[in-house]
Amino acid sequence: MIYASFDSILEQGSGEKPGYVDGFVVAVPQGKKDAYVAMAQKAAGMFEKHGALRVVENWSVDIPEGKVTDYNRATLREDGEDVVYSWIEWPDKDTRAAAWEKIMADPDMQPGDDMPFDGKRMMWGGFVPILDEKLA
Known about the structure:
The chain is an alpha+beta fold. 25% of the residues lie in helices and 32% in strands. The chain has a five-stranded antiparallel beta sheet with strand order 1-3-4-2-5.
């Protein structure tokens, strides 16, 4: 198990009960936090436009070193970087699949030379919620 503490830097959306969640973890240079937040705000609007229920972005506060693995190793975090933990809540997997197809085809969502992080070190996956105490 890996664990850490994060500060919320963006939370947008209604927070309805999701049927599917995309999760992301990436290391971001500390000096690019503002650029990352601006990029995240733009992306969150695009996700909501295509059916996302909620987008949450969190900046690391306390990332302890684990014995086998941790967020630092998982992201190949370098000195001067922090870890961002994010997720997008969708009503269901089909809505998510249709949205990502449109988002990835949108010229405004194509990564440019000014990306505030190394996309090759981003981890992501799709999840079906099994417990949500707030919305149970």
